[in-house]
């Protein structure tokens, strides 16, 4: 078992034909209660294929289903989460933080240029391809991501506490919400702590005004 999310669990799996190891996110169909839940999974798979080929986006190998689960097979990143690396180090130097932020912003630019908003960028959703290279970042978890058109405005509140942009909480936002989150990640890389500690959305909005 590699990780646990709201809808799915990620396991280590092995291709019997080649012996290659992969990560497999298995989503229980019984948790997909509404048509919107089913569409979210389909869109996640579609977006991963849409972003395929970017060096800093985890590669999808395929998607399969049986009577009980939907399985998304991806490249295996053995270096753990960027979040855990920050905890280990405490914080990064300005130079290292700039290098990592360049990668994060590159992912944001790639997503937006292809008409995708990630909507849940955070250190937990960047994996390291290996333990020895802090620069081998791979963006993961496109479960909240959506396609967008220029000028399109979104109103649904999604994202993670401490990282979500204030315009998301105000229910009027577009791709710029990812840019805010990239700035929060930069702050955490430099300081080791999030810029806002308020627990409630109202307090968070007041802090941003």
From TrEMBL:
GO terms for molecular function: ATP binding; metal ion binding; protein serine/threonine kinase activity. Its cofactor is Mn(2+). PROSITE patterns: PROTEIN_KINASE_ATP, PROTEIN_KINASE_DOM, PROTEIN_KINASE_ST. CDD domains: STKc_CAMK. ATP binds at residue 29. Belongs to the protein kinase superfamily. Ser/Thr protein kinase family. CDPK subfamily. Belongs to the protein kinase superfamily. CAMK Ser/Thr protein kinase family. SNF1 subfamily. This is non-specific serine/threonine protein kinase. It comes from Aegilops tauschii subsp. strangulata. The lineage of its organism: Eukaryota, Viridiplantae, Streptophyta, Embryophyta, Tracheophyta.
